[in-house]
Amino acid sequence: MAKLGSKKRPAIVRVQTPERADEMTAIAREHDWDCIVGIEPDNDEDITDLLKLLHPERFSIRAQPTAGRNDPCPCGSGRKYKKCCLLTASANTAPSHQP
């Protein structure tokens, strides 16, 4: 996927006034980002794409590393994950067979 703010994937911004549109355009130009600014007085402002470009750390989602079956258990027991907490984790997620 193309990078946000590039020609192939410009940032899309919706504002309510021409003055605010000028502000958003100036920010995009200052950072050399491609941006499409729409003025829609009847709709709520949406500047999420510019915020993502200005503060990428707030919007990034990082997956937590998981232990592999043969890795040392993260609980610190010194045993392999498959012989330690994997059994407990799978027991907690397994459906119960109670009537």
Radius of gyration: 24 Å
**Unreliable sequence segments:** none
- Helix/strand/pairing category: alpha+beta
Query: What is the topology, as strand order, of the major beta sheet?
Result: 1-2
Estimate the global geometry from the Cα principal axes.
elongated
Percentage of residues in helical conformation: 25-40%
Q: Approximately what portion of the residues adopt beta-strand conformation? A: 5-15%
Mean pLDDT over the full residue set: 86
Q: Give a short account of the largest sheet.
A: 2 strands, parallel
Number of helices: 4
**CA-CA gap between termini:** 49 Å
> Count of DSSP E strands?
2
H/E element string?
EHEHHH
SSE inventory with pairings:
Layout: E1 11-15, H1 18-30, E2 35-39, H2 48-54, H3 56-59, H4 85-93
Parallel strand pairs: 1-2
Summary keywords:
10% strand, two-stranded parallel ribbon, alpha+beta, 99 residues, 4 helices, elongated, single chain
Describe the structure in your own words.
By secondary structure, this protein is of the alpha+beta class. It has 4 helices and 2 strands. It has helices at 18-30, 48-54, 56-59, 85-93, and strands spanning 11-15, 35-39. A two-stranded parallel sheet has the order 1-2. The model has no long low-confidence stretch (mean pLDDT 86).
How would you summarize what this structure contains?
The chain has 99 residues and is α+β, with helices and mostly antiparallel strands. It is 33% helix and 10% strand.
